Amino acid sequence: MKELPTPVSIEAISDGYDDGGVDEAGSYAVYITRFKEVGLDTLSQLIQKLKNCGCPVNCIVYDPFLPWAVEVAKKFGLVSAAFFTQNCTVDNIYYHVAKGVIKLPPTQVDEEILLPGLSCTIETSDVPSFVSTPESDILVEMLVNQFSNLQKADWILINSFYELEKEVIDWMANIYPMKTIGPTIPSMYLDKRLPDDKEYGMSLFKPMANECLNWLNRQPISSVLYVSFGSLAKLEAEQMEELAWGLKNSNKNFLWVVRSTEEPKLPKNFLDELASEKGLVVSWCPQLQVLEHKSIGCFLTHCGWNSTLEAISLGVPMVTMPQWSDQPTNTKLVQDVWEMGIKAKQDEKGIVRREVIEECIKLVMEEEKGNVIRGNAKKWKELARNAMDEGGSSDKNIEEFVSKLMTIS
């Protein structure tokens, strides 16, 4: 990150495992405990160091997964801002888990849940999913602990925009000083007010940009299905096989991101038999550039929040195959609230079969219902752009946040 061409200076604090993070710790429970101990100390040292260098800190923006950061802010008399990177609906669910109203993972199957601030009922299959294991229990505890001392934060910032989640934001704002500041994607894909803001500036993997874009340039408008499950999701070999043949049987041109660690799960001879003009499989791609491309007609996604928000911002309809965590909730919103996509449903074994995948792709890209979905996708794209443009809801919230900080600096 220090090599990025940016005027922002980058410093690090320690998690107590500088040589290997969670893997070095051996478990999340040990890691989180140690991170708090060492993080409190090294963050305090950093704030003192910056003060001594004539560059004093006046605000700590922190991820509420690390709730101890607000304690450091209070110790130094600094303003604190919790930045939630998931949407407000998911945060609302975690809030109610913290209050003991609902349980994760849910014990009932397809029980209807009605939570204040949500515009629709949700079922247990729609809430964030975690398999009940000691490691998952620690993750759920970390998610719930976001609210353990949130009342101490001066600001709550959300990576969403008001028009997308009005009811739940209004309800949560009665409890916490919540402000939406999203979508947090580069300006040139939204309001275009910052001409140099074209990319995030870093990537976990090396994108095959030229291969992807050159191939897309040869495809007709809105003809390509883009398929990606992000940087973390791991599909079972059986699911990879069903997905591969579902894509092939759909008879659509497709660009499929298969990380190198996942490639051995592809069906035997699948890549050899794939006609180059019909499909392209790459290890990684520049997702924003791909989603913006005129040849893209649909996004088959795991529905992680970053990918979902990018699809919303660029007006791309979705077929969703959620895997875990917040993805089932995001899928519920995409299909039933924002109505800009459709969920490919699993069978009793938890596998989405090739016939279902093929049917969902054709529904979005060919059928009458697909016209409605595509129309809604265009609507949300416009609203996302308006939110970040001058005078928009997120723009005003960012201006208010910055102006308040300027008065105390």
TrEMBL record:
An MF annotation (GO) of this entry? quercetin 3-O-glucosyltransferase activity
EC numbers, comma separated: 2.4.1.-
Keywords, A to Z, come to:
Glycosyltransferase, Transferase
Q: Which domain of life is it from?
A: Eukaryota
Transferase among the record's keywords?
A: yes
Identify the InterPro entries for this entry.
Answer: UDP_glucos_trans (IPR002213), UDP_glycos_trans_CS (IPR035595)
Task: Report if keyword Transferase is assigned.
Answer: yes
Q: Main EC class of this protein?
A: transferase
Which family does the record assign?
A: Belongs to the UDP-glycosyltransferase family.
Annotated protein name in UniProt: Glycosyltransferase
